[in-house]
Amino acid sequence: MHPPEPPAPAARPRLGVFKFASCDGCQLTLLDCEDELLALAAEVDIAHFAEASSDAAPGPYDLALVEGSVSTPEHLDRVRRIRAESRHLVTIGACATAGGVQALRNYADVEEYLATVYAHPEYIATLATSTPISAHVRVDFELRGCPIDRGQLLEVITAFLSGRKPGIANHSVCFACKRRGNVCVTVAHGTPCLGPVTHAGCGALCPTYGRGCYGCFGPAATTNLPALIPVLHRDGMDDEDIGRFLHTFNVADFTAVEARGPGVTGKEGTE
């Protein structure tokens, strides 16, 4: 009599990583998880990740990580297809969560840009705006940053694959500075800093080295941007300087917060 066959191993969760209009930096954050990458690869089936392998398997996917903004007509069809094939969809980085620095086009004439930059603009297929993934499909969580933080990325992947809510804090960079014991660059040195209105996630990297925060992670959950403007004026910035300060990685989000006025609430990671 033959012994019973051992049970078949459970199928590993399938992970897909996708790119839209972006620089690939947030995808590279996953590849930079050197100490954890082998353990992660043993727990999941990396079915689609063009940055890492040309072997791209079709869906469905248990978790899709999406980098980049929707900036072309082709993107519209593709993002809807990815959403339909994915149990969970998480956007990673400022381009995917806020439209990225390319969202500067939203406040200008894209036809003028095309005529200035390209010798034959008739061959370019683009949208007039650069928009976050959440403007077009349902998103289960937004992981912000330019680029994202590797520790937060691993936390989000682990949380979704284990069926729990990601433990990503919604406080500002000022909170992170206090945890590190940093001397406030604004109070001590009069350095313009967006730390009071910026979502934490970088570990207060710039203030730790004596520079002001540049807002890489976008508006904090509770953001009173109008209250910061007089402080930036005091520290030597005029209105044009402040506009340039805000209109970088998360231009669309900071512009929206500025327009809503005092006592506003910024974007949070959503689930």
TrEMBL record:
Residues 23-159 form the NADH:ubiquinone oxidoreductase-like 20kDa subunit domain. The keyword Oxidoreductase applies. Pfam families: Oxidored_q6 (PF01058). The keyword Oxidoreductase applies. InterPro entries: Hydrogenase_assoc-protein, NADH_UbQ_OxRdtase-like_20kDa, NiFe_Hase_small_N_sf. SUPFAM superfamilies: HydA/Nqo6-like. It comes from the Bacteria. Keywords: Oxidoreductase. PANTHER family: COENZYME F420-REDUCING HYDROGENASE, GAMMA SUBUNIT, CYTOSOLIC NIFE-HYDROGENASE, DELTA SUBUNIT. This is Oxidoreductase. It comes from Streptomyces amritsarensis. The lineage of its organism: Bacteria, Bacillati, Actinomycetota, Actinomycetes, Kitasatosporales.
